[in-house]
Amino acid sequence: MKRIANEIEVIINSALENLELIQGLTDCVTAFMRFEADTAHWIGMSVREAVTNAIQHGNKLDAGKTVVIVFELAADRLGVSVRDQGRGFKADNIPSPLDQDNLLKPSGRGIFYIRSFMDEVEFKSLPHGGTEVYMVKRILSNGGECR
Amino acid sequence: MKIEIRTVGDVNVLDISGKITLGEGTMTVRNTVRDILKDKGNKILLNLGDVNYIDSSGIGELVSTYTTVTNSGGQLKLLNLTKKIHELLQITKLLTVFQVFEDERAAIASFE
Predict the structure, then answer these.
(1) Which among A122, A117, A139 is positioned nearest to B55, based on CA atoms?
(2) Considering the entire predicted model, what is its pTM?
(3) Selecting from 3.40.50.2300, 3.30.750.24, 3.20.20.70, 3.10.580.10, what CATH number does the domain B2-110 have?
(4) Inter-chain contact A109–B60, Cβ cutoff 8 Å?
(5) pLDDT in tens, B26-59
(6) Phi then psi for A58, rounded to 5 degrees?
(7) Which of A52, A100, A101 to mutate to test the interface with B (most CBs of B within 10 A)?
């Protein structure tokens, strides 16, 4: 994927309390880029899901490990990268939550929601360990103020 | 996140407001339903009209709660889905699992 943009990088430790911080920051970015309210909500949820996975499943709630979130603000899109320091996983191996056998499982929907609400989603195993989720939401216009 | 419990006939109505997200929100739902099953019966109606945010863990908690109540011989139904909760349930086919109502009286009357 092409990546030329202004970037905001945030590094957090693996505490679920930090989800609110990232949620607030994402809301600020999407407001600045003037995403329509519903779209902004789903972007916020997608980022939250990715960071939750990074903290919980990637870094196994190890407070000594970090999650790096990078927002790429471009004229035509918002890109968000979420990197953990876990052991990595294969996204294609995740069972579909839509299969009849999985409908009543309490977990396993986060990545499905990310793929549903973002325009592009890519999972990459990092060379020195960990996983990067890179997601893109395309936009038609930008500009505005962070409130 | 806040839950207020009302009883209408033998149905326990839980008016949930705020966020149902991983951590405190999901635990509060789980513990409240567990206590109701222990003390107040197994007919439960979750009023989600004032839930302003839910994540996949919150959706998972609804599913888990549904399974717990059903396995205890009870019934769990949903009332007043917000547009966003409706969409999250719809795209994951969970509207085929839950009985959903927009009218409380109709929901109460549907319990056997």
Answers:
(1) A117
(2) 0.92
(3) 3.30.750.24
(4) yes
(5) 999 999 999 999 999 999 999 999 999 999 999 9
(6) -75, -65
(7) A52
